[in-house]
Amino acid sequence: MDEEYDVIVLGTGLTECILSGIMSVNGKKVLHMDRNPYYGGESSSITPLEELYKRFQILEGPPESMGRGRDWNVDLIPKFLMANGQLVKMLLYTEVTRYLDFKVVEGSFVYKGGKIYKVPSTETEALASNLMGMFEKRRFRKFLVFVANFDENDPKTFEGVDPQNTSMRDVYRKFDLGQDVIDFTGHALALYRTDDYLDQPCLETINRIKLYSESLARYGKSPYLYPLYGLGELPQGFARLSAIYGGTYMLNKPVDDIIMENGKVVGVKSEGEVARCKQLICDPSYIPDRVQKAGQVIRIICILSHPIKNTNDANSCQIIIPQNQVNRKSDIYVCMISYAHNVAAQGKYIAIASTTVETAEPEKEVEPALELLEPIDQKFVAISDLYEPIDDGSESQVFCSCSYDATTHFETTCNDIKDIYKRMAGSAFDFENMKRKQNDVFGEADQ
Amino acid sequence: MSGAPPSYSFVALPPRAKDGLVVFGKNSARPRDEVQEVVYFPAVDHDAESKVECTYISIDQVPRTHAIVISRPAWLWGAEMGANEHGVCIANEAINAREPAAETEALLGMDLVRLGLERGTTAKEALDIIVSLLDEHGQGGNYYEDAHSCHSFQSAYLLVDRDEAWVLETVGKYWAAERITEGVRCICNHLSLATKLDEEHPELRTYAQSQGWWTGDDEFNFAQVFSPADDRLDCCAGQDSLEKQEESITVQTMINILRDKASGVCIDSESFLTTASIVSVLPQNRSSPCIHYFTGTPDPSRSIFKPFIFVDDVKLVPKAQSPCFGDDDPAKKEPRFQEKPDRRHELYKAHEWARAVIESDEEQGRTLRKTMLELEKQGLEAMDEILSSPEPPDPAEVGDLFYDCVDTEMKFFK
User: What does this protein's UniProt record list under function (chain B)?
Assistant: First the structure.
C-alpha cells in the first residue's frame, strides 16, 4: 500500500482474475484486492459444506448423511466451459491449465413435452434419437451441413443467405424447419435464453451453432468441460498467473473508499492507507452507486443422492428447458455435477437450477426443473440482482464488470472481459495478449 | 422333385385392413446363401422391334415400361416381389404341381413378376399380361443358381392394387385366377384356388379331363385337380396367421406376421432362409402415395423395413444393389452357373456383421436390435404422417428416402 499501481483490481471473481492476469502479462503493475478471505467472490466454490449452510442461514447445519464437509466444493454460479469456447482459449494461451484438471460433462439434455431427451453427440445418436421425426431430421441435417460449411468470408458458402441482413427466422424458413426443431436449435445448440435472436441477422447464431459443434467434436460426449474441485479453481488459476508476473494480492482487505479527482479515479483507500492507480477494475459490489440493476437471476442449489432420471445415470449433465416449453420468456437451466468431480461426498450429486426471474414468484418459475430432480435432499435458494455499469469508464477510468447471467457457460463473461479490455487498452482484445512473455519472474518461459 | 421354397404372400383389404389401406406383404424363402438386392428401374421408352433379355430367354419389348422397384435374387433378371409407379404389387410363389415343371429354359415365375410390373397399370391388367406371355413363351428353367441340379417349379402369383387383389395359379401354360375384394388372403408354396374361379385358361378343364385328373362330373376344384397326390390341401400357416389377427391389419401387423418364426412364416432352416421381405401399403384414396417397405437383407426378424415412394426423380441406391458382372456373369453363360461369384451388396455385408453380433453377443445384440427397431418405428411414423396428410408429399423430400434409410441403417453396422 501507499504505492502507485497502473491498475487496481477489486474483487476476485473470475472476470476480475482474468483481467488481472491479462494486465500483468502485458507489463502493467497490478494490485488485486478482495474484502473476503477467499478467492472467487460470486464465482467462488463454497467449502466446507458447513459454510454453505451458514451462508444460507440454515442453522442446524448439514446432517451426517452429507459425509465430510471438506469433501464439498459447491459452486454458487452454475456454469460449464465450452470445449472450443473463449474461456478455454484463455486457459490455453495463459497455460493456466497447467494447474487444473478437467472432465468432459457426460451429456446435455433438452426438455420437450414434459420429458428430457439427450442432445445427440454422435451421428448415430442423432439418427436414433426420437427428439425429431424422420423428415425433420433429414431437413435438419441439411441445415447443419449448411452451417458447418458457412464461411462469412466466402460468399460461395452463403447459399443465398446474407449474414448481415437475413434474419435467423428466415434461415430456418429456408430449410423448412418446424417449431420444435427451431426451439432445439436456438436453445440447445446456439444456447440462446430467449427468442429475441430470431429477428436478428443470422451470422451470430450461425457462429454459435458452429461453436457448439466444434466444442462437441473436441472430446465427443458433450461440448462442455468442468474443472475438478469446482469452478473456484478457475479464478485462483488466473490469480496465480497474475502473481508470477508481479501482481500483488491482498485478501481479507476491506475497501473503505474509492478516491476520485475531477471525475477520474486516482486510488483506493483501505484501512487508512491509500494505493494510487491510473485505472480501476471491480465487480459491481464495490461501486453500488455507479451500477444499475438489470434484472434478477434465481439459482437453486439442490443436493441429491441419485443421478437425474433418464440421463443414463450421468455423473454430470446439463438440462435445458426451452422457454416456450414452459410458457416463459427465458430458458431454465440445470447443471448437475457430483462426487466424480471432487465437489461432493461419495454418492452425492449437486444440481443447480437457474433462470432469469420474470415474475414476483421466482421459485414457482423453476418448479419444472425441480420436478426433474426429485427427490431432493436439501435445497438452497439464491435470488441475485444483475448489475451492469452506468458508465463505460472512458472518463472515470473505473471499469466495472457485469454480474454473471443465467447461462450455463462463460461466453458472455468472456465477451465482458474483451469489452472491458478494449475500453481500457484502446485496442481490440487479441488472445495473443494473454500469451506468456519471456520476462516472467520465475523463469518459466517457453523455449 | 424337391420341396418348393416356403415363401408366403399376403394381402389384407379394407375394412379388414385399417384406414382404407390395402396391405400387401411377402416373405421370400430362397437358398440360404443367396443374396437379394433391391433395385429401382425408371420408366423407359423402348425402340420399336427391340427385345428384352429375361433371365434365360429374349422376348419382344413393349414401347414403354413403367417405373418399378423390385427385390430379386441378384443373379436373375426378374423379381421375387415388387411394385410399380401405378400402385401395382406382385409377388410369386414357387409351387409343385401334379405335372412336373418344365426344365427347358423359358420364362421364370420371377421374370413374369417383373414383366407384369413393367407393363400393367392395374392388378388385372398385369394378370392378363402374365397369362398372355405364359401362353406365348411358356415357363421353365432353373429357379436356383445351381450348376448341378435343375430346380424347376410351377408358379403362383398374388397381384394387388389399390382396389382389389388377384390370385393367379399356373401349371405349364394353364392357369386359374380368383378376384379378391375384401378380407385377407395368403398364398404359399401350395395351390390354393378351389372352386371359386373368376378367370381361367379356356382349355383348363378339357386339359384336366384329358389327363384323367377330372371326370367332368363333380365340381371342378383347381387345387384338388392339379396338386400332387400327397399334398395336404388345407395347410397354410400364413393364412392362419392372417385370419387370427383380432385387430384391423396394419403395416405393423403385417411386419409382425412376416417376422414370426413360431408359425413358420419366417423361415430359417437348414435349406431355406427368408432372404428378403416386402410390405406395401396402397391407399384406396388416390391422393395418397403408395408406400413400399423393403428389407434387402435376410430374415425379417433381424432386418428392418425401409420405405420407398415413387416420384419422378428417385435416387438410385447402389449400396442395396449387387455387383454387376455383365456378359461375364456365369448365370448368363452356357453351361450355366459354372462359378458362383460374390454377389453381396454393401448393405448385405454390413448386415452380416449385425447378424453375427445378434447371434454371439447377447447384450450388444439386444441393444443393437432395439436401436434398429426404434429406427424402423420412426420411419413407419413418418410414413403414417404422409398417409394422414391431405396433401401429397414433396417429391424432393421423398426421392432419396430409401437411399437415406439404407445409408442410415449401415451407419449402425460397424
Answer: Regulates exocytosis in mast cells. Increases both the extent of secretion and the sensitivity of mast cells to stimulation with calcium.
